[in-house]
Every structure is written in C-alpha cells, then in structure tokens.
Amino acid sequence: MTTIVASKGYTLSGARNLAMMRPTMTMLEYNDITPRRFIILDGEPYEVLSSHVFRKQQRKPVNQTKLQGLVSGRVVEKSFHQAEKAEEAEIGTREIKYIFNKRGEYWFSDPSDPSQRFSLPETTVGEKAHFLKGNTIVEALVFDEKIVGVHLPIKVELEVTEAPPNIKGNTATGGYKVVTLETGATMDVPMFINAGDVIRINTETGAYVERVNKG
C-alpha cells in the first residue's frame, strides 16, 4: 500500500492521481472579491468568507471583507477600495474520500484508488471536521501542489446517537435541545428529534436543517 503524506509542507508531486492543472491567474476588481473566491494576500492564499460593498457619505465605495488564510488558518478583515485589485489565487480542486481520524490526523484516499492514502492535520481540514463521517467525498483545495484546505458538501446527513428525553409541552412550544451525532459532534435540534433519527445539517452554518424520512 502506498501512503502519501499531503499535509502542510508536503507536496503532491509524487501522487499522480492528485496532481492538479492550475487555472490561469487573473486580477479581481474590488467588488469581485466575494465569498468562496480565493486571493493572494502578503504571498499567502486566502479564502473570502464574507464581503460587503458600501459607500460612506460622499466617499468612493469600499468592499469590507473577512478572509481566512488557507495555510495559517488565521482570519483577518481587509477593506478593498474601488481602485484596488487583488490577485486571484491559483487554487485547484480534487475530490478525496474521508476514511477516519486518529489523534488529530484525518485520513483520506483517492476515491478511485483506496491504496492511495494520506493524512491531513485537523488545522487543514478545518472546524467543520466534526461533521465528517467515513466514506464522505469532500473537495480538497490545492495550492502549489499542497492540499491547504477541505470543503465539505454544503449539506450532510448524520444519525443522532444520543438525545435527552422530550419534556412534556416543549415540543408544542418549539423548544430546542442538545443531541450527539454519530461523528461525536453536538448541536441544537428541535425537541421532537430522538436518538436513531437522521438529520440534515448545513455545514456552512453548522445548523440543523430538517429530519430525514427513513426509507
């Protein structure tokens, strides 16, 4: 079995199936710096988490953004003025399959070749790692032949393994309670959710969406 270490600081040059063709670099206008786009700031790739274009009194418009470094993980706020541009980061993508995690290392494989296994640290997988279950296909973000981030599907379905009993009257008033999911994550759900239910979760907001009908 071939093991490929693809965490920060390790390249994918030896992994043919994970090599990426990178897109042509472009410059983004200030108002094109929008969520889920990637830019270069101080030589580091950043993902745009949020943006808001506004005009203060008689001044020219400004795009107020929140960015997250794909290598450092730090979140910063940055204002882009109308005359400014940003270099779009050359980010490639690749589907990978999540297998399991152990001691802060998350193990993945190429979906078409299970023998091509590699690990990523929790800092690369990100805070949404607690919504990952075995055999989930996710999108790896590749920069300079390194995996620098992971995008989960926007919605995932997970089974509730532990749930406190309903308190009489709360189901009618729309109360919430904390349950444990099959991945070990905990979250607030409506009172009518019970252990054994499968629920749909929005991984971008971390919020409960709905109960999934069985069968």
List the helices and strands and how they pair.
Blueprint: E1 27-29, E2 38-41, E3 44-54, E4 62-69, E5 75-81, E6 85-88, E7 92-102, E8 105-110, E9 113-121, H1 122-125, E10 137-143, E11 146-151, E12 155-162, H2 170-173, E13 176-181, E14 186-190, E15 198-202, E16 207-212
Antiparallel strand pairs: 1-6, 2-3, 2-6, 3-4, 4-5, 7-8, 7-10, 8-9, 10-11, 12-13, 12-15, 13-14, 15-16
Quick summary:
With 215 residues, the protein is mainly β. The chain contains two helices and 16 strands.
Offer a few descriptive terms:
OB fold (Dihydrolipoamide Acetyltransferase, E2P); SH3 type barrels; 2 helices; single chain; 215 residues; five-stranded antiparallel β-sheet
Tell me about this structure:
The chain folds into three domains: 16-20 and 91-151, OB fold (Dihydrolipoamide Acetyltransferase, E2P) (Beta Barrel); 27-88, SH3 type barrels; 155-212, OB fold (Dihydrolipoamide Acetyltransferase, E2P), CATH 2.40.50.140. Helix content is 4%, strand content 49%. It has two helices and 16 strands. β2 and β3 (44-54) form a beta hairpin. It starts with 26 loop residues before the first strand and ends with a strand.
